[in-house]
Amino acid sequence: MSQNSASSAPASRRRLRLGMVGGGPGAFIGAVHRIAARLDDRYELVAGALSSDPERARAAGAELFLAPDRCYTDFRAMAAAEAARPDGIDVVAIVTPNHLHYPMATAFLEAGIHVICDKPLVNTVEEAEALVALVRETGLVFVLTHNYSGYPMIRQARAMVAAGALGALRVIQAEYAQDWLATAVEQSGQKQAVWRTDPTRGGVAGSIGDIGTHAFHLAEFVSGLRCTALAADLQSFVPGRRLDDNAHILMRYESGVRGTLWASQVCTGTTNGLRLRLFGEAGGLDWHQEQPNELRFTPLGGPTRIIQRAGPESLPEATDISRLPAGHPEGYLEGFAQIYRDAADRIAAALEGRQAPTEAPLPTVEDGLRGVHFIHGVVESSRRDAAWVSLPAP
Amino acid sequence: MSQNSASSAPASRRRLRLGMVGGGPGAFIGAVHRIAARLDDRYELVAGALSSDPERARAAGAELFLAPDRCYTDFRAMAAAEAARPDGIDVVAIVTPNHLHYPMATAFLEAGIHVICDKPLVNTVEEAEALVALVRETGLVFVLTHNYSGYPMIRQARAMVAAGALGALRVIQAEYAQDWLATAVEQSGQKQAVWRTDPTRGGVAGSIGDIGTHAFHLAEFVSGLRCTALAADLQSFVPGRRLDDNAHILMRYESGVRGTLWASQVCTGTTNGLRLRLFGEAGGLDWHQEQPNELRFTPLGGPTRIIQRAGPESLPEATDISRLPAGHPEGYLEGFAQIYRDAADRIAAALEGRQAPTEAPLPTVEDGLRGVHFIHGVVESSRRDAAWVSLPAP
Amino acid sequence: MSQNSASSAPASRRRLRLGMVGGGPGAFIGAVHRIAARLDDRYELVAGALSSDPERARAAGAELFLAPDRCYTDFRAMAAAEAARPDGIDVVAIVTPNHLHYPMATAFLEAGIHVICDKPLVNTVEEAEALVALVRETGLVFVLTHNYSGYPMIRQARAMVAAGALGALRVIQAEYAQDWLATAVEQSGQKQAVWRTDPTRGGVAGSIGDIGTHAFHLAEFVSGLRCTALAADLQSFVPGRRLDDNAHILMRYESGVRGTLWASQVCTGTTNGLRLRLFGEAGGLDWHQEQPNELRFTPLGGPTRIIQRAGPESLPEATDISRLPAGHPEGYLEGFAQIYRDAADRIAAALEGRQAPTEAPLPTVEDGLRGVHFIHGVVESSRRDAAWVSLPAP
Amino acid sequence: MSQNSASSAPASRRRLRLGMVGGGPGAFIGAVHRIAARLDDRYELVAGALSSDPERARAAGAELFLAPDRCYTDFRAMAAAEAARPDGIDVVAIVTPNHLHYPMATAFLEAGIHVICDKPLVNTVEEAEALVALVRETGLVFVLTHNYSGYPMIRQARAMVAAGALGALRVIQAEYAQDWLATAVEQSGQKQAVWRTDPTRGGVAGSIGDIGTHAFHLAEFVSGLRCTALAADLQSFVPGRRLDDNAHILMRYESGVRGTLWASQVCTGTTNGLRLRLFGEAGGLDWHQEQPNELRFTPLGGPTRIIQRAGPESLPEATDISRLPAGHPEGYLEGFAQIYRDAADRIAAALEGRQAPTEAPLPTVEDGLRGVHFIHGVVESSRRDAAWVSLPAP
């Protein structure tokens, strides 16, 4: 086999009791969340509201080894019942279309249950602010699955920037290009496409909400800087599409840093092309999601170095969360699972009334609010023909 | 997110009861097996012989949520006790150094328990033949974790070759180069290195046994051809090393196909560089383990096409076992988990007395025997200064 | 060696008599022009104004095998003398800093001598328009060395777009990133840096003029579309720098096509990173200058194909101008030489009073005018905080 | 443009008078030699024996601007006439099929004319030894165009090995794979294929002579080590082919270094795939001809560095012979031209009775002899079923 041992066992050894809302048969992201929860053996799925149809809810639950009495058809009923059980769920994963995040998160938080929620947070600034307030009020853990921030080499990049490896930053180039909406697949009923291109469910933005928010979050996450203003030009290239499917954005960050952000779902030849490049006075970094195990670092005056996850010059921030040695590719699921693993540490600490041992950089409800500001800022700027729109400070 | 839904749930919904022998704290491959078993929720780990020290066995078991009475210190005791329990394990995973595979596999097979065993199978041809006989006699499932054959694009390559996309094959180039043994790490006590370079535990071969067997299996697995003869030149470059750490081999396959196989663990700049290239009258294929989601196919007279897992021209053999859409990288753990998923189908069918629904191409005890023949053939050829040595037909 | 023969000899067999202005010892681009002129044996360098210092002019001329009486110290004297000689130069190459292009080009055109001129054309719109008028009036050939348009795979991309391989275009992403000005090298006297960052010589723009114009030209050249408006955000990151060293631009093209253009000379880890990506309804193209022999083409619904220069699916537009078969890399000099070869065909035809046999897509004085409009549009937009600025139709 | 100036002018400024034998219209390698000779302006082509047919010889000569009286139809007549002229050629380039190299080289050497000759040197060991003796006897310069040794990053690799960057070498992997002979193109009359697959012209070996010798030369050139023994398995995959089109070879070098060499012309998906990897105690190098401007260097314990030609960590051996700054790709022709440039230095020095200023590592007649030994050693080993064959020390 190979050289390193997989990372050591987590400090706290209890499996958290997990519930899931949404994510029934055929759902893409629900299955991903479940694998992510299982990977490190920190969760046990014990309850779900997988369908509003009783028959289908029970069948889906059986498929997932849920007890029949914990297969709910209504999320409010589930929150109430689980809160009342002595063995009720510790945490719920919300994996529905965007417009349902707000009422669901609210219901579970009010029932005293920690929340892991898919992105984007919610569809309006008002909802986002209300959720921020509720999380603060309840003191519960709220984790937003900006899963790309769980990739070890993204953590490495963040650590390198923080440690000054790039010196003062100058330029951030973020792009996230896909091609699966290059034709009007929503008109043929493709389930993933239908709700994402429907304003009543997906919100005011299409590609910007679906993938642009990931790129935005990652740019801020890695750079440690806040975007202060943006100027956006949105397009809907596919005839009949009601939301944007392509976006070009000029970005201004704190400290005079500049950049662009490009999000697209209509560019044939790209697949899940999330790429982040950062350039500073002392060096540059280049990372591509489709080759997530390597990070290219070029110090000023030196050749480019290919830093491999868990290999030479891989920092503890990346190596310690690696499950495999270098050369054994980890991927999307492991990055997603990292969010779950870090969330488990935090939730377990909360349940036991102690500090989480190491404060992993998990995306929070506040990051969700920023994402909603970003979405609305972009839409507003584009409506005003790419006028500059300021983003509020967090 | 993205376009496809993750693959549908498996036909049979029961979790198999899994035991593990070896794989205690600090073990690399034990942790990998456990994640692989968990990924698709087809197994539940319920028993283990994780250490011969009672204290450590219990601690390691607690870490893995095992009941105290199922934390064994002796594999024979475990086989007997589990076979006697009504809720005893269905299958055991053997994840120890090579020299223990034989007695352990024998014990569990004789106790009527299915076996998943790490590679290489055993250290001698005699042991391998005895195991083959025992598996046939008991009718139990025996799966060898040549995990790289679980990668979707390896399954794709195999399917393309079988379908004639390359025409009659001509050349197979297999290489597996690492660098983690470039220095005498075994002398500093690195646990993974120590037993692999110790003939009493690793067997007659070093790199050939550890990684050469993977490359050999993959070459035969993808090509559908058997190696008939080989001529090998082995080296031990690192002073004091007792087994080979580099091997160059001329290969002859059925039907006049020729190739080379290179295995090394001392080549700085390679990491886990398993690469397979096949060339035929009508086209060529190129796959590299470190970028496992793509397969390069060049038809005669056409440009090279980059086929992505679950993307255009991805065959059902690859797409149907994908957990994620194209562009969302899967890696080593998913490939390993595929072996476990396919094994679960087969074992569940055996337990229920029916045929496994689709006969996935799982590595078997017979493949293990071939691997042992390969190891001994290589060592013999090298002793005779790279004379040709025939491999027996399977 | 290999399979194809190099491309056949050009139709017209005469060597053009070439003069050069600028490009004395230590000049980068002068040496490039000379190699480009020599490569296909269509020119003979016979005269030059390589320095205003008589001693240095003669020494530099001797180095280049010029006769002493054709080593001039003044471009006007050179234009007059050469025009008067029966064996005077047919064509002059102008390879000086930008601010000298206008008077020099004017002098040679007025003397009836064809011109090959480095880019950008001139520093002001007025000069550019005057040159356009003069070229039209004289009927002489004027070629602008937007050399990247001479790369075979750029010609291929242009031909594919024109033939509809991408369908209706949607998005054009152009980027040209370098890092050689990441520090204030101009303050240490680096010759190439000094004049490029000096407004009196480089003009109103820095990186935009030096490399942004290449990216702009290429985007229009390949797409066949005109940019109609742009919104630009310019920066001068290096303290003390007087011109832009980084530029982010939103681009709007004819037919609703959108894009961005990024030019930078301060991004460590990029070298000469000119990349062009085009996406249309039916497919996408991706080309990178540092790997110029391949073009990635992804048809809608198919895998990406790596089209190699002179290999399968290489069109006549690329193969016919290849000097080498596929796999034998051509580079920057060959692309530059293509401009010279095409210019030779055109000039020879003009000298002989006939049509140039195939009308190669050479960059003209009108392209130079567009580049100047682009530069001034970008600068104006940035001054107005990234307001949209229209570009005039050509 | 960019940062560096092109390399400075050579010390000696005279153009050598060059003759060419072979290389008439349609010849591939003749055109390459001519461009290589022109690139740095160190040669003037003044005479040729381009065809044995007077009409065609004159037409071809006119195409190349040769005076009619220097268009010969017979190489012996040319050697005699040119030797007799006061302005006769200084050096001849021999660019014919292999079997003609010997009589031609002999004729020109005997006439006192320096020789640049294509590879492989000749077809038999006897001829090779005779040529070595003749070159020594005459004291003339004899350069063999193992052109790949002219690539800057190959020179860099050689210098790094010599300087100990890899420590003591262990493994050398050389491969040169093409696909242009994957079908029986010689049967359709393809000129390049016909003579290469004809034993009376190509010699005893096919792919081994045509491209294997390049890989062999490069392995020794870069490593500074001599191959001492080899064991080869040759194939002729294409029905009707009379010479090998694929070869797998086990290699043993001085100092216990081991390797393989693979040469093939039938592997679809490879193009001109010459790759060289060297591994030593302290690091590894990886170079691929199709991306010749970069060299990957991995020091033991560090990440892989991508060293770019003329970029950071590019040594003088590479930077000083670069015509362009990093990021501006040089290719095959520039590498070939380097051989010509170095040859010009050496020949000019010889003509002027002085030492060549820096002794560039040019391939010599002795290297040619080694190549012939290699060819015959491979063929003999393969005839004896891959028995070990020793190569004589040089």
TrEMBL record, chains A, B, C, D:
Any one GO MF annotation of this record: nucleotide binding
Limits of the Gfo/Idh/MocA-like oxidoreductase N-terminal domain: 17-144
PANTHER family: CONSERVED EXPRESSED OXIDOREDUCTASE (EUROFUNG), OXIDOREDUCTASE
GFO/IDH/MocA-like oxidoreductase domain: residues covered: 154-285
Protein name in UniProt: Gfo/Idh/MocA family oxidoreductase
Pfam families per the UniProt record, alphabetical: GFO_IDH_MocA (PF01408), GFO_IDH_MocA_C3 (PF22725)
